[in-house]
Amino acid sequence: MRSGAVDRFAANTGLEFTGAVLKPGKWVVNNATDLWNRYIYLQGVQQENVRLMEQVENLSFALADARENVAELKRLRALMHLSPPPEWNRVAARVLSYRIGVQAELDSIILDKGFMDGADKNTPVVTHEGVVGRVIKAGPTTSSALLLTDMNSRIAVISSNNRTRGLLVGSGNRDELHLKYVPINAQLEEGELLVTSGLAGAYPKGLPIARIVSVAHSDISLFKTVKAVPLASLGNLEEIILLQAPLTPVVTEAALQTNEQSSSEPTKQNATN
Q: What is the pLDDT of residues 209-225, one digit of tens each?
């Protein structure tokens, strides 16, 4: 009995001692293995995060580009609804930059169309909202257009309701225009639309250009003080339309001589007869 108890005690003691020796080693191995697995896992997670971040960045650029394309498509569709007057052709152009000159003395825009594309001097520039201005200088492939708000701009207009005529003058402010030479007794209302009158042939008749915001009477002038605002959004132009005037037939000297000869031949024949 005692011998068996001693043997069991010795065996259990040796087993516990062996376990006490092996358990720390096993713990170290398990933790080292677990740490390594976690490291490998974290490395994979980091690589996946980098890949996902790059994908999100690419998708963000693609989304921004898609939004820009949609906005451009909407603007171009709006421009396509612009119907020029009969015999006037339209040419689409893009705005390259705003204002020119050392001190930006002209309120103008640079276009990607020149006289090779139909952007001649005084060509009207419009959008679907209304008149923007006119071309003042044209190169082969680019041109500059004076905005209607520039102080050098002068456009003959007529009111849509009362048919009152006047001269729309720029003030140098993108949000303000002045209607000059309106007689003191002329009928004109706030909110009335101003359209091009077509005088001098610079602009086709009937293009929307501005809306009247105030009408004041003066005691010392024969004309009313009228202020208006442009209909076109001049501060964020990107695409515009150039309106090409109808071609006028050019009568050459040779054609005149031919007509004179043809008209004189019956006279000579009658004289001979």
A: 999 999 998 778 889 99
Backbone angles phi, psi at 259, to 5 degrees: -65, -40
Alpha helices in the chain (DSSP H): 2-80, 253-272
| Among candidate residues 234, 243, 232, the one with its CA nearest the CA of residue 205 | 243
The rounded percent of the chain whose pLDDT value lies above 90 is 32
What's the rounded Cα separation, in Å, for the pair 108 and 101?
10
Angle of CA points 264, 269, 272, to nearest 5°? 125
Quick one: which of 132, 133, 186 has its CA closest to 158? 186
Instruction: Please give the pLDDT value at position 272.
Output: 47
Tokens found for residue 203: 């602009």
Report the alpha-carbon distance of residue 120 to residue 54 in Å, rounded.
48
> In 3D, which of 83, 80, 134, 156 has the Cα closest to residue 242?
134
For the purposes of burial, counting CB atoms within 10 Å of the CB of 122, is it exposed (0-12), middle (13-18) or buried (19 or more)? middle
Which two three-digit tokens encode residue 65? 């580009």
Polymer length in residues for the chain:
273
Burial class of residue 28 in the structure, from the number of CB atoms within 10 Å of its CB (0-12 exposed, 13-18 middle, 19+ buried):
exposed
Contact 183, 222 (CB under 8 A): yes
Contact 170, 148 (CB under 8 A): yes
Structure tokens at 56: 């999100």
Residue located via tokens 């042939």:
201
**What does pTM read for this prediction?**
0.62
What's the rounded Cα separation, in Å, for the pair 166 and 199? 11
Number of H helices, E strands in the chain: 2, 12
71-79: long-range contacts at Cβ-Cβ below 8 A with a sequence spacing of 24 or more?
A: 72/238, 72/239, 75/238, 75/239, 76/239, 78/127, 78/128, 79/127, 79/128, 79/239, 79/240, 79/241
Question: Which of 207, 7, 240 minimizes the C-alpha distance to 110?
Answer: 240
**Segment 26-29 long-range contacts (CB within 8 Å, at least 24 positions apart):** none
